[in-house]
Amino acid sequence: MNKSSNLSSVENALKILECFTVDDTEKRVTEISNELGLAKSTVSRLLKTLLNQGYVKKNLENQKYSLGNKVLTLYSALMSNMEIVKEAHPFLEELAKDTSESVQLAELDKNKVIYMEQIKSSFPIQIFAHIGRVNPVHCTSSGKLLLAYKDFHTIENILSKGLEKYTKYTITDEDKLKKELLEIRDLGYCYIENEFIDGIVSIAAPIRDYNKNVIAAVSLVGPIQRINGVKAQKYIGKVVETAKKISSSMGYMY
């Protein structure tokens, strides 16, 4: 096998691993083959290698594959080296305890927002994102917030990929969204209702590093029945203050 073939195999193996998501944890060879446009023989060969190395596992009852424990080992190693997660965790716990709502830490990953840490709500009904979950940028508070601090070229590039409508309140007009991004940047926080999921409120604020760059977002999420009116304004202040505390711990000087 030549160098080009080796690189192609590695790339396809990584694509197979990326097929598995929080919402779709198990897949058959045929499903992966159709999704990636790869021959079933290629998928089977790569899955066998990944299986032998522990990166995937196979359910013998339904013949479906899912991620293996080796991926968890890599994830643990990544998390242990992520300074921002370490620094943010106690402040996220403080905010979650103070509000009893779900709190998250997120960053921008290409044209999506990915959640690096979460603290669950203490209420029986909880709204939170799994660690590693990927959500759209244009209708989540963390996504909009992080996008608002990006340069013009990056914003144009991300918006050009399309704005999917999730609820009747999702903004799908580029010009309207760009105007809102400017407002978010001026305010220093993002507050949304019903844009990604009906009945859900989300509030996000920016986390900066010592170079004054916005590197992540802290967000609070809960049902609109619990977060509205005076309480919503109060929580906005708490989220912004939490973001400032984390930023200070990252070396940002106010």
TrEMBL record:
<dbReference type="GO" id="GO:0003677">
    <property type="term" value="F:DNA binding"/>
</dbReference>
<dbReference type="InterPro" id="IPR005471">
    <property type="entry name" value="Tscrpt_reg_IclR_N"/>
</dbReference>
<feature type="domain" description="HTH iclR-type">
    <location>
        <begin position="7"/>
        <end position="69"/>
    </location>
</feature>
<keyword id="KW-0238">DNA-binding</keyword>
<dbReference type="InterPro" id="IPR014757">
    <property type="entry name" value="Tscrpt_reg_IclR_C"/>
</dbReference>
<dbReference type="InterPro" id="IPR036390">
    <property type="entry name" value="WH_DNA-bd_sf"/>
</dbReference>
<feature type="domain" description="IclR-ED">
    <location>
        <begin position="70"/>
        <end position="252"/>
    </location>
</feature>
<dbReference type="InterPro" id="IPR050707">
    <property type="entry name" value="HTH_MetabolicPath_Reg"/>
</dbReference>
<keyword id="KW-0804">Transcription</keyword>
<dbReference type="InterPro" id="IPR029016">
    <property type="entry name" value="GAF-like_dom_sf"/>
</dbReference>
<keyword id="KW-0805">Transcription regulation</keyword>
<dbReference type="Pfam" id="PF01614">
    <property type="entry name" value="IclR_C"/>
</dbReference>
<dbReference type="InterPro" id="IPR036388">
    <property type="entry name" value="WH-like_DNA-bd_sf"/>
</dbReference>
<dbReference type="GO" id="GO:0003700">
    <property type="term" value="F:DNA-binding transcription factor activity"/>
</dbReference>
<dbReference type="Pfam" id="PF09339">
    <property type="entry name" value="HTH_IclR"/>
</dbReference>
<protein>
    <submittedName>
        <fullName>IclR family transcriptional regulator</fullName>
    </submittedName>
</protein>
<dbReference type="GO" id="GO:0045892">
    <property type="term" value="P:negative regulation of DNA-templated transcription"/>
</dbReference>
<dbReference type="InterPro" id="IPR011991">
    <property type="entry name" value="ArsR-like_HTH"/>
</dbReference>
